[in-house]
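User: Run a structure prediction on this.
Assistant: Running it now.
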Amino acid sequence: MEHVQGRLFRDFTVPGVSPAERSAIYVAVIETMAQLHSLNVQSLQLEGYGRGAGYCKRQVSTWTEQYKAAAHQDILAMNQLSEWLMKNLPDNDNEENLVHGDYKLDNIIFHPKESRVIAVLDWELSTIGHPLSDLAHLSIFFFWPRTVPMINQSSYFQENIGIPSMEEIISIYCRHRGINSVLPNWNFFIALAYFKMAGIAQGVYSRYIQGNNASENSFLFAKIVQPLAETGLQLSKRTFGTTPSQIDTSQQLFGQSKTGQEVLTRVKHFMKQHILPSEKEVIEFCVQNENSVDRWKKPLVIDKLKEMAKAEGLWNLFLPAVSGLNQVDYALIAEETGKCFFAPDVFNCQAPDTGNMELLYLYGSEKQKQQWLEPLLQGTIASCFCMTEPDVASSDATNIECSIQRDGDSYVINGKKWWSSGAGNPKCRVAVVLGRTKNTSATRKHFRECCCSFFSVEFLVLKSVAESSKLSGADYETYRNFQTCLYEQHTMILVPINTPGVEIIRPLSVFGYIDNFHGGHFEIHFNQVRVPATNLILGEGRGFEIAQGRLGPGRIHHCMRTVGLAERALQIMCERATQRVAFKKKLFSHEVVAHWIAESRIAIEKIRLLTLKAAHSIDTLGSAGAKKEIAIIKVAAPRAVCKIIDRAIQVCGGAGVSQDYPLANMYAQTRALRLADGPDEVHLSTIAAMELRDQARGSRSKI
């Protein structure tokens, strides 16, 4: 024992230091722990310092007894966790290492200027036992429930760049100890750490009741025992991938962030523990109310799940400015949510609200953000997007005829829209409407003349040169006229859904499905609808500019989710193939079914990589620079997933098209995607145009 001069960090997020120093501090903590656990107990003559073998069993027994002695109420999760721990003791419960017992950041003293450990404090719980208990205790903040305040925490750790991930912590520890980084029974030790924390919290509250605790906040500990026990119980059922090498190579290749990895882990956990178990209840509610006046309402369990997701910070994950995630991060998260039809709603990541929120965030005025964006982000209202029209071929968006005309301090909207998704949602309060503000006969004539040469190779080369700022004179004027006629006649405006003249005509079915959970897809007429001029978004003629921004990241969200949908379909296919017998052998034994399974796995891997490439391009080049990759995945994903679902239906036979399986609805959703954000043929033309442009640029560079 000696006095040392140094630094103590009571906040485990280590504020006030650089990311590099924060990382170095944590590495030093882990290395010191590894050195502690590598000490030879015999050479230090510490054989009698603790009872050694059987440490885990004694820990479970000791903390169970202490909890029961202090318990002020019966908490089911604590009893269940205690029973699980006793039944799942590690096979190697005979390790005899020096363990600290309370190894954490605020028990470490660092050098005054260097990221170096010079002392370890608080040895009162130290003994001879299993070293992974210390490692688990240090790692509990990775899973700490958001509803439980953490002592000595100024901000959540994911916001502090430099803190190693759990996988990195384990890797550093194992490398310094010279042991395999695949840790057996890791779920046991994490669950045990939470059991101990819950027991400690119960003890603090017990002393408060007895008047033996001076802290004025001690009464709060009564509220955290149950959530800590429930977290431990949930973690006990987890299968952990504990080495960085187990992280998918696609995640490493395209740059998933540490924050993205952590959020993805929590989303997967939330899906498994809360969303998927509720799926049957939600489906039954939707089926029962499909033809009733309550068909657009959602079951109460959805609101409960939303509250839970919001409390855990799993909310608005699609919007980088709010979530701190990049598009690659969200691509992998959206894949996970795509496995259940209502999961995006639970995380406030559902279409069309995501696109509308992106639009308002990027282009809305401060007043528009306050009036509409904030409630949308909170999930208190919903919205719809009105673009497609029944009377024109809307695959060519320049055909849109709905008029938006200025009249004093207002704009007047007239036109018909359909496939306005979400308009039936009881929370729908506002529509984003695309219409024409410039519609003279002169511009129409010039537009037709320009269109005659639009898809010619010569024009594509001309367009490429213009975009490279190398075109001048009459040629540039022709090009600009084309741009004006094609893209600067349309405008977007916000229309409150209860405005006089807004007439909701009818819901449209998709292959017979009314899609009542998502608020349906409606035909809406706008008859002399008058809204304030302040409802105009960005300015007249900026509609296509806004649409490209809205449908940059937003337009690949569907593709991201379809990857998860494909995984679910393949899972159903495999389960059915292993259960059913035809012609005296299991279905998977038939070569054609085996090939379908293999082809489906290959297709999923392809579209996942294409989706991640598009997301990575948006992250690095922006939406405009990623146009080609976006168009490619818009074609590839729905096509591939339609085939996979079709195979799954075939393997399931008659059941595959019945309500007993979700496949028919999954197929309807996915087939509709080949039209929803533009038909395949339009995307193919876009890809061809950009490929010709790229080839033309390549030819000029060679010259």
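Residues 152-160, 242-247, 440-448, 450-462 have pLDDT under 50 and may be disordered.
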